[in-house]
Write a structure and sequence with these properties.
- The structure holds 2 protein chains of 2 kinds.
- By secondary structure, chain A is an alpha/beta fold.
- Chain A has helices spanning 13-21, 47-57, 65-69, 90-99, 109-114, 116-124, 143-149, 163-175, 179-189, 197-200, 203-217, 238-246, 303-316, and strands spanning 5-9, 28-33, 38-40, 75-78, 103-106, 130-131, 154-160, 228-230, 249-258, 261-270, 281-288, 293-299.
- Chain A has 2 domains: 5-138 and 304-316, Rossmann fold; 144-299, 2-Layer Sandwich (Dihydrodipicolinate Reductase, domain 2).
- The longest helix of chain A is centred in the middle third of the chain and has 15 residues, at 203-217.
- Chain A is globular.
- By secondary structure, chain B is an alpha+beta fold.
- Chain B folds into 2 domains: 2-87, ACT domain (Alpha-Beta Plaits, 2-Layer Sandwich); 91-168, Alpha-Beta Plaits (2-Layer Sandwich), CATH 3.30.70.260.
- In chain B, 31% of the residues lie in helices and 37% in strands.
- Chain B has 5 helices and 8 strands, in the order αβαββαββαββαβ.
- Chain B is elongated, with a radius of gyration of 22 Å.
- Chain B starts with a helix and ends in a 6-residue tail after the last strand.
- Residues 1-6 of chain B have low confidence and may be disordered.
- The chains are: A alpha/beta, B alpha+beta.
- The A-B interface holds A 156, 158-159, 231, 235-237, 239-240, 242-244, 246-249, 251, 254, 265-275, 285, 287, 293 and B 1-3, 94-96, 98-99, 125, 127-129, 134-139, 166, 168-171, 173-176.
- Strand 10 (261-270) of chain A pairs parallel with strand 8 (166-170) of chain B.
- Chain B: This is Amino acid-binding protein.
- Chain B: InterPro entries: ACT-like_dom_sf, ACT_ThrD-II-like.
- Chain A: GO terms for molecular function: homoserine dehydrogenase activity.
- Chain A: Keywords: NADP, Oxidoreductase.
């Protein structure tokens, strides 16, 4: 879809970057909303002014955030924070767009991981489509690669889909430091959030592999976070990485989406293998039925990176 | 890559040869031609099978996908293959064990691992910090019977769970 009118919900790193980059992709922003305010203009908002106001005053405009849902748009971009369980309010935002026969592009993992079946049902009754490349692996085209091959031709996905945990493990291995030291460093650098629970306990990675499982199952089965076996990296001492290194190996937080289910946990991998990416890089391996293994790696997080995936999704929408 | 090498397995092939000059050499050629690496040959000249043939046991190392080709080429060369595929050397499994290893009686943990029928411990490295408060790590190298890796890992997990230890398992797929 070219020249689309976008309504962006959520003005965190991703939402902000979508607003900034939309014009470069030939799209117009007709509405922006954060949790307390909205800016709406059917002819296109002044994106710079809106983002300046957000930075200065903490609001994007004078309108009510709910009004953004009813604004004039072709595509709703759902970039509010990921929530679990009923995945609200993200789920209702997407439902609202589909009920209006509009498209929805999600950067919010909650609805896709926790309520995939509900989403697909709403989509089936709508002229709108949903896409969610940005929910898995930031800029890396994973969902679209699965689409291209067809879910029937991918038997499993595995890899590293959390940059924070990967940064911590690779720094622990390289510097011989303990978890707490490296976590503090990661927080100083802005790689880890003040509350890193989602990342270091493996929940963020698990949500992404749940989403991949849903895509791969293609409606035959539905997964949620409750179906995943999840283990984080907080209990790994520096000595474990030393012992692994002595043997030509290292430890990575590896997720797997296979017909047996979804799991995330620390695993021993060869030091020189493709899965031992360093720093905040992500990698996904797809097992194909006739073409062996695909390794796709790149930047799995960040505002402009994830916004790139959102805007690519907008281009992929038909009609 | 390290794990590609570990995929190479040693297989034992039992052959029966007619007691004539050149028979042994003729039987070995197809093996090397098909990409197998001869590890050992046990040629029991004193023994004769009921059919009057001489039994020969050959250990060959090769990648799994080559093995069938080797056996096929032996049969095509007219060699009587009695048994193929029983693996003499077992698979190796490296795992890390993390937690309060010393406080939870490491030697008892290792005995439990060894008692598990399908694994034997061939190497152990322990890294324990000075204080008792911090958790320590151990790297265990286990020999396992082929095809039992999953069962061994699940037994290891049980033993570890009982002592509040963590097993860091190798990723068995996708490491190439």
């Amino acid at each position: 879809m070219t020249g689309a009118r976008l309504a962006v919900l959520g003005v965190g790193a991703v939402g902000r970057s979508v607003v900034e980059l939309a014009a470069e992709y030939g799209h117009t922003i007709t509405a922006v909303a954060d949790s307390s305010s909205a800016a709406i203009d059917a002819d296109g908002i002044d994106t710079e002014a809106v983002l300046d106001r957000k930075a200065d005053e903490g609001v994007v405009g004078d309108a009510d955030p709910d009004d953004a849902l009813d604004a004039d748009y072709d595509v709703l971009v759902e970039a509010t924070p990921t929530t679990l369980g009923d995945a609200e309010p993200g789920f209702s935002h997407v439902a609202h767009a589909l009920n209006r026969d509009k498209h929805a592009v999600l950067a919010n993992k909650g609805p896709v991981a926790e309520r995939y079946g509900d989403l697909r049902e709403l989509e089936a009754d709508s002229d709108g489509q949903i896409r969610f490349e940005a929910t898995v692996g930031g800029a890396i085209p994973i969902c679209s690669t699965i689409d291209d091959f067809g879910p029937d031709h991918i038997t499993a996905a595995r890899g590293v889909l959390n940059g924070t945990a990967n940064f911590i493990l690779s720094r622990m291995a390289a510097e011989g430091l303990d978890y707490d030291h490296v976590l503090a460093e990661a927080q100083d650098l802005g790689v880890a959030e003040a509350d890193p629970t989602f990342d270091v306990e493996g929940i963020d990675a698990a949500l992404k592999f749940v989403i991949l499982s849903n895509v791969l199952a293609d409606g035959d089965e539905e997964y949620t976070l409750d179906d995943a076996t999840v283990e984080g990296i907080t209990d790994i001492p520096g000595t474990a990485l030393e012992l692994a290194a002595e043997d030509g190996r290292t430890i990575r937080l590896i997720g797997e989406a296979t017909p047996e289910g979804v799991s995330v946990g620390p695993r021993l991998v060869p030091d020189d293998g493709p899965l031992s990416v360093t720093g905040t890089l992500n990698i996904v391996q797809l097992e194909t039925t006739h073409a062996g293994r695909l390794n796709i790696s790149g930047r799995g997080a960040g505002g402009p990176e994830t916004a790139t995936a959102v805007l690519s999704d907008v281009s992929r929408l038909t009609q | 890559m390290s794990d590609t090498a570990s995929e190479v397995q040693t297989h034992t092939i039992r052959l029966e040869l007619v007691d004539e000059p050149g028979e042994l050499l003729g039987a070995l050629e197809p093996i090397s031609e098909a990409g197998g690496n001869l590890m050992s040959i046990y040629h029991e000249r004193g023994n004769v099978t009921p059919r009057g043939h001489i039994p020969v046991e050959v250990d060959v190392s090769c990648a799994p996908d080559r093995f069938d080709r080797i056996v096929d080429s032996l049969r095509e060369a007219g060699v009587n293959v009695i048994q193929a595929g029983s693996e003499r050397y077992d698979e190796e499994l490296v795992v890390l064990l993390v937690g309060h290893l010393v406080d939870t009686d490491l030697s008892d943990t290792l005995q439990q691992v060894e008692a598990c029928a399908n694994a034997s411990l061939t190497d152990l490295s322990l890294s324990a910090p000075r204080g008792n408060d911090d958790s320590s790590s151990a790297r265990m190298r286990l020999k396992t019977k082929s095809g039992t890796t999953d069962a061994v890992l699940s037994t290891l997990r049980e033993i570890a769970d009982g002592k509040d230890l963590h097993v860091i398992e190798p990723l068995t797929e996708g490491t190439q």
